[in-house]
Design brief:
heterodimer; A: 296 residues; globular; B: 190 residues; alpha/beta; Rossmann fold; 7-stranded mixed beta sheet; 3-stranded mixed beta sheet
């Protein structure tokens, strides 16, 4: 794909590269942002309500108010991300004008456009998008996403969906690397993704952008699990500030993400943490309560 | 010759790929024990505040300074250069102080100011491609520091003894010039 050679694209993916191995934390005010930075977060996601509260309180979830985002940008030196509704390119234009460092076109907010995601090549600021499988990931990359994250099930405190999505993406990538060329054409049709991107993945055995994990990470061991399954960094939404001791938990998840391959360190990180967020059994949720089915 | 890459967070894998291209199999360093026996160490890009916290927590702070004092070569890119500097501004933060530099963080602005530029270098003929991502600026270089590359009249790649610091990301290009210079420095000391 031609866009992958452009300088704009390389600089967008470049910032995503810098976040690898790190933890990106949802924060709703300056105090939380400072706790996150002190705990070693490599970036923060500024939003008005964490997913668990969005789920509980209902109503339309929109882009956070520029005031909150601006205050957070002024309070920390690490990159600041913010979310827009799926397809809401005008919200994205506002965030770009505000100069946030990364935009998350997110299923956690109420979608603004059901069939259309944002054409992200129109922007200079990089985007991250959620995906449940390889086809979804490649469609988002074709539209210009510079980072992919699993959708998981946001605000659930339950890792099962993030694991499902990560395994789906990695096993589909693996399968592509074994296919003959004519079979890649068929795979592109089944994945509903551009053939050039399918060929790229088959040749390189990975996504052309960093692949992070989100949606249900609540403990240090959750972070170590998704990292061992191939995630390159983690997003933690409700898991930190809905727990008993956010600062301690934030530090512990950062530590476990760096040392994901070292169970002794993950054990250390897991001790004396207080209560994790309560969490939901995803199988008890009704179809209409799922966030991951937003977007396509 | 053994080369390590600090792998706490950031683009350490991009450095590993570049070194592998040059025939070096690097070791990822996350603990003090993994520093043993290294001739050279890369401090990669990433978030300097995150790296700083880990260097302290893992007890890597003093061992890395001792590594430099005992003749180990260091390459820091972007966040790595911030960690190596003597003084850091915007905001002021602790650093290893292994290169006589004053560095200003995020000095070009936020991500929208990130870009790819070209600048002259002493390392070879022709301009060097430079990927700047939320990059710092080297505001001051000490008297013993050699400027190896510039961009828009500012130093962006410098050498202080056996320490190389770049405010850009040579590991995100196809050009091995900076890493070759680093390996040469590690082997020969100049």
């Amino acid at each position: 794909m031609n866009f992958m050679e452009s300088n704009t694209w390389r600089v967008k993916v470049g910032l995503a590269e810098m976040l690898k191995g790190g933890v990106i934390m949802d924060v709703t005010n300056v105090e939380q942002a400072q706790i996150a930075e002190r705990a070693g977060a490599c970036a923060v996601m500024a939003l008005e309500r964490v997913p668990a509260d969005i789920r509980k309180e209902g109503g339309v979830a929109r882009m956070a108010s520029p005031k909150i985002i601006r205050e957070i940008m002024a309070a920390v030196s690490i990159p600041v991300m913010a979310k827009v509704r799926i397809g809401h390119f005008a919200e994205a234009q506002v965030l770009e004008a505000l100069e946030v460092d990364f935009i998350d076109e997110s299923e956690v907010l109420t979608p603004a456009d059901e069939p259309h995601h944002i054409w992200k090549h129109d922007f200079k600021v990089p985007f991250v998008c959620g995906a449940r499988n390889l086809g979804e990931a490649l469609r988002r990359i074709a539209e210009g996403a510079a980072m992919i994250r699993t959708k998981g099930e946001a605000g659930s405190g339950n890792i099962v969906e993030a694991v499902r999505h990560l395994r789906a993406i990695t096993s589909e990538i693996q399968r592509l690397t074994t296919l003959r060329h004519e079979a890649l054409v068929h795979a592109a049709k089944e994945l509903q993704a551009p053939l050039e991107l399918v060929e790229w993945v088959a040749r390189n055995g990975r996504l052309p952008v960093p692949n992070f994990s989100a949606g249900g990470i609540a403990t240090p061991a959750d972070a170590a699990l998704v990292m061992q399954l191939g995630a390159e960094a983690v997003f933690v939404g409700s898991g930190i500030f809905k727990s008993e001791d956010p600062e301690l938990r934030a530090r512990a998840i950062v530590k476990a993400t760096t040392h994901y391959n070292n169970p002794k360190v993950v054990l250390e990180a897991s001790e004396e943490l207080g209560e994790a967020m309560k969490g939901l059994d995803v199988r008890q949720l009704e179809e209409k309560e799922l966030l991951q089915t937003r977007g396509w | 010759m053994k080369v390590g890459i600090l792998a706490l967070q950031g683009d350490f894998e991009a450095h590993a790929k570049m070194l592998a291209r040059l025939g070096v199999e690097p070791r990822f360093v996350r603990t003090v024990a993994e520093l043993t026996g290294l001739a050279a160490l890369v401090l990669p890009g990433g978030e300097s505040t995150t790296h700083l916290k880990f260097l302290r927590e893992e007890g890597l702070w003093d061992p890395i300074r001792q590594f430099a004092e005992s003749g180990g070569a260091l390459l820091g890119t972007c966040a790595g250069a911030i960690l190596l500097a003597r003084e850091v501004k915007n905001p002021s933060q602790e650093s290893l102080g292994l290169a006589d530099l004053t560095v200003v963080r995020n000095a070009y602005g936020r991500q929208l100011a990130s870009e790819i530029r070209f600048g002259p270098t002493k390392l070879r003929a022709g301009p060097l491609q430079m990927v700047f991502i939320r990059a710092p600026i080297i505001e001051r270089v000490g008297p013993g520091v050699e400027v190896l590359a510039e961009c828009d009249g500012r130093p962006v790649l410098v050498r202080d003894g056996r320490v190389l610091a770049a405010t850009f990301h040579p590991e995100l290009t196809d050009d091995p010039t900076v890493h070759e210079a680093f390996l040469k420095l590690a082997r020969n000391g100049s």
